[in-house]
Amino acid sequence: MNAAPTTAPAAQAETAGRPLPIIAVTMGDGAGIGPEVIVPALLHPDTVGRCRPVVIGDAERLRQAARILCVSCEVVPVETPAEAEFVPGRINVIDLGLLPADLPWGQLSAVAGDAAYRYVRVAAELAVRGDVQGICTAPLNKEALHAGGHLFPGHTELLAHLTGVEEVSMMLSTPKVKVIHVTTHIGLIDAVHRIEPGLVERTVRRGHEAMVRAGVPNPVIGVCGINPHAGENGLFGHGEEEEKIVPAIELLRADGIDAVGPLPADTAFFLASRGDYDLIVAMYHDQGHGPVKVMGIEAGVNLTVGLPVIRTSVDHGTAFDIAGTGRAEAGSMVEALRQAAEMSTTATP
Q: What is the per-residue DSSP string for 214-282?
């Protein structure tokens, strides 16, 4: 039996006189474990003390999840985040009412895929209006999303489309290190071809802005090279560092951004883990993902930067095989909410 986590004496709306950020929590695919991880995560004391979460989803599905988990809470529909009240045991939800009451758990559903899209669309609208300071997404199922008529590879591309943003970056965040990627899901040879000074510069600027928004006013940013030893003055590679990275760093430093590099990637992450750098810029997927997973995969969170607000996500999928059983673990959602609060601006008083 899952007891409800102990909440703080009162959901703290302020820290040091400043309102906590309002985080839109999208319910994801309602046939998956999203509702079952959202309910305990929103009641968790770490969440209560850091942010003001408002679910975008279906109230009845959240109530079903609470019953499955044997958690006592009040799921309260609200029209807007401004109407939400943050008191112990209460979950605020902008209730879109899109799912049938008898929607099966753990089964692919076009209805659930369409609903997942609509939850994200509402969250994006709230972000564009400035009604929320961050977005935290429960997992959606890409096949269900497509079956529902929405042909996007995933949350990142969907949110970029909905907010009218042409280019975003992936940032991985752990307690020890944060890393932003210049390229991600493309082959290594393609990544080297795609890297150019403009893309490097824009990526660093997005990372710098995210760190400043998170309360680091003058972040020190380490920029990795492409080749072993960052090319070692032309000994390795064909001058990629001088051609593709150095011009960007020179422009950034001229603008007052403390970007350092190109750095040998095999030492950059060690230096970041001991505090020399606030953010590391990786040139390609595995250059950033490998060290992060070694140093903190269990506490790692995926962030999308370059949107009007920070977006974080859990590190798991819809887990149809255990959906509706009460066996889902909420730890990743708690961490995603924590980092959404950490990386978001505070709300306007």
A: TT-SS-EEEEE-SSGGGGTTTTSSSSHIIIIIHHHHHHHHHTT-EEEEEE-HHHHHHHHHTTS-SEEEE
